[in-house]
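Our consortium's second objective concerns turning raw sequence data into structural hypotheses that experimental partners can test. To show how far this objective has progressed, the report includes one record in full. It was chosen at random from the queue rather than selected for favorable results. The single chain below, 297 residues long, was entered without modification.
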Amino acid sequence: MTQNSQKHLILLGADDPLPPGHFWFDGDGFGIYMAKQPRSSWKEHVHDWVQVTIGLEPAHMHAEWSNEAKLYQRKEYIGNAVSVIPAAVPHRTFWQRRAALIHIYIHQESLSQLGLELLQGESYKLQPTYLVRDLLIEELARSLYLQAENGSLNELVAKAAITTISARLLSAYTSRPGPALPFTGGLGPAREHRVRKYIEKGLERDLSIQSLAKVVDLSPQHFAVLFRESTGFTPHQYVNHRRITRSQELLASGNLPLVEISLQCGFSSQSQFITTFRKFVGMTPGKFRTSLDSTRI
């Protein structure tokens, strides 16, 4: 490892202490952070390195950022996901539950040098991209994570992986001069908003994939594909996520019986509510309520 550590990069915006057993590696023009990351958050921050964040199962991530028009955007995702964050882009992230986290920091100069070689001097701009699937980057990150579990990482192996990831960034996450292509993926902003609003206003009713597809006049199969592209969730995952979030609000705001909360949040029974809550939150609703009460004392 180099003597001039860039470990401070992972501390930028960190609201919580780094977990015990986390791993940092300094390479030539890059740095790597890996950890079994507990529920934690990074407040809005910027840095002058390109950041690639990879979350591996059972990750549940929430990202927020400002685009070039200064409009605030957000996205959530459950499962393996990759975010590509260019230098100087304000962003913040939340890890909703414990999962494997890999942060890769690439010095802008290193990426630019590779860009000169691969793109033969063609100008490009790295595009911010949040919480998407990228099997190549995921598998390279996973291999680094597994190698570092014993507390060390071979520099040649790490360098080769970072070079491949950098090449992937240049080929898949950059814009080049030329006519803009229309957006064709996902539901589109208007239909996505319509579905989200329908779900939010009726968490207690039937929210099957068939009923949701009717809201935007699509077949259930086509709707499921487009919804996942737009939100990162399957329709079932998203509905359960919103129901659990609503139940947490009800648990925190009063003393409603669990059976009443389960009905208001659309669960078919109290037992289904408890099982789903434990899966998402890591504890039962009763224990969650008790933990809230103890913090109020």
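The partners drew two points from this record. The longest strand covers residues 99-107. The chain has two domains: 8-175, 189-296. Both points have been shared with the crystallography group to help prioritize constructs.
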